[in-house]
Amino acid sequence: MPSLMWNQCLSVFSYTGLCQVSCFNLKTICAKSEGEHCDQSERNSKKDYTVKVTAENTNCCVNAVKQPDRKISLETPNEDTGEEGEDINAQTSVEMMNNVKDLASSLSGSSAALSGADGIKGVIVTETDRDDVEEVSFAYSSPNDSISIVKSGLDTYPRSITVSKEAFEKAFTNAKYVFAAVLRFPNFTRDELNSTILDNEVLAVDMGVNITNLTDKINIHFKNVKYDGIPSCRSWNSEGVRPHWIDDGCETVISDGSITCQCSHLTFFSILLTPLNETISIPDLNNLTTITQVGCGLSMFFLCIALFMHYLLRKTKATITTKILIHLLWAMLLLNLTFLINASVANLNHTVGCKIMAAAMHYFMLATLTWFAMQAFHLCLQMYSGGNILIKRYVLKVSVTSWGIPSLIVIVLLSVDKYGQQVIHTDEGANNVKMCWITDGDVQYIVNIGYYVLIFVFTFSTLVIILTWFFCLKKTNSESPQGNRSGINMMTVMGLCCLLGITWAFALFAYDELRIPSYYIFTVLNSFQGFFLFIYYYTNSNVKATNSQSAGVSSSSSNTTANTLGKGLSFLENPYNNLPAKKPQASEDG
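That's the Adhesion G-protein coupled receptor G2-like sequence above. Prediction below.
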């Protein structure tokens, strides 16, 4: 055969020196598989023809591809996948993979192309000779193409899956007949995080037996792909109504616009794309983690000291202000505790345990926010009543409200399965951190951000009113040294910000260029919130003692001024002393 000049040819099969190609040069001499010459109309149809490969035209056969022996249409079990364009049900895909296992027994030593509704395509290859087994590769050019069995020239395909020889050897030890099946699912059911999947493709790889801990791993290669975000190879163990993508057992290799997933097990696989503004650098993540752990530890230490003083060292009956403050300290203490142990629970990869951990931390966070609002409400009520709160069972009513509202929210989220394992991604795709938290981004914004915004509007308004009143009263008290009053004012402002949760507002600025600085400010201030509250309490306790001593030797005019300050700013003084008032407070049996 003379040397041939090919304008374009696509190799699809090569065994024993034969190659199927599509040739678009009308002068090309082509032949059917039976050896007959094809006429011009057949050449114009651009069908696949068989030509004999010689040394002169071996460049025509770029790839060696085996076409499956037969074609099989897969039925959608139980329920259809929905109308065209709708997401493919996750559990339906699992049942389809189980049906593929049943097909393997009837395909001894052969292969089949698989197809299903809504663009589901795949291929299955069976092996019978254990001594002659080799790795098998599957490839396709685009999401709409069928998946082929490729023997060589794999690099020319933009998408490929390679099942290693080790996987086949492990399969032979656990099964009489061995197969490798790949199914490609477009428009797969979204997970609870509504994660973005590269090209919206999910690949399922199965061999009929449990294959894990491979040293020669399964390779899934996406070549020359365009994407926005940080790619991360994930797998799903086929449990649950929605997929829960994890990175266990999979490594992500990114090189020159290509992504390779190297996985040590077989299951459902996808490449998730994390938006760039949702990732964090490894140094920043390590710094924030260290600051948080140290700060939470210190906060818990000082909160425990305050609670110890309240329950064991207190000599007088606690006031209403004290009781409300103690509730806030308990909520904050338990929030810090659940936060510190959260990552350890998440790393256990226990689904139920992680849900409970996420619900517990979310509950104490909402309880802390609610007690911030109750602190503001109590301060406003004190100013309005002049320190004389006559509401019956006041503390009981406040407590039921503050602990009850968060519990209702958490119960609702638990009932709709919104808690689970969350992953904090780094911009390098490595050293990601797991935690147990809300898995739905929309719920996160609506419940947490929305809830805090409502509380912040109320607490910040209260802070402005209190500070305005405070500075007005400051002008009326000219007897105290100016230096001391400046120090007291600064600690008062810091204490009030902690009491009312004002520092949490930095989370509202965590966007674009301000995201990382806001993280640092938010983490530092709130990690040490317990410490600030303790200093606030301790400093104002000393101020109260000093004022009491001064009041004993001062004139009646000084006593009147002190009483006025005590009546208006009782919440700035030692909460273990009775509020100066003309009328007694209502009895507290709550």
